[in-house]
Predict the 3D structure of the following.
Amino acid sequence: MRLELEPPVGVAGIWVGSRMREAHQRMQSLPGLVSFDGILARYQSDLFIRAFSRGDSGVVHVVEVSRDEYEYTDTVAWRGIDLLGEPADELIRKLAVQTDVAITEHGHSLTCANLLIALWRPTMPEGEFDEEGRYFRTALVAAPGLYE
C-alpha cells in the first residue's frame, strides 16, 4: 500500500475536518486491515493509522500513520519522498530544500509547520552503524492552526 500525505487535507482518504465516524470507516476499508479497536487501525505490514479529534468535537484534527518495524512494505510519502523509508538525515536535507523544517526533542521530532506535517522517531542512532533511530517511524498531517 502506498499512502500519500496531502497536507492539510489528510492521508489515504482520511480527511482532516471530517467526522471521526467517517475516518474510522475509511481506516477499516483500506487493504490489509488486521484489526481496528475503535481508535487505531493495524495493517498486515505493521503499519498503523489513527485519527485524533481535539476535545469532544468529533471532528478529525490529526491523521497519524506509524510503523512498528524497520522492514515494512508500505510507503508513506509526501511529493514522492518516502517519509518513513529514507534515513532521517537525508530526509531532513530533502525537506529543508522545499520547506521550513524545525527539529525538536533533541532530534526525535521534525515539524514542517507551514505544511502541517510532523515526523517522529522514538530513539536516535548512537553511532554511524546503529540502525535504531535512523528512520522516522511516525508521520502526521494536522489541521490548520495546530502549530500556532
Notes: The mean pLDDT is 91.
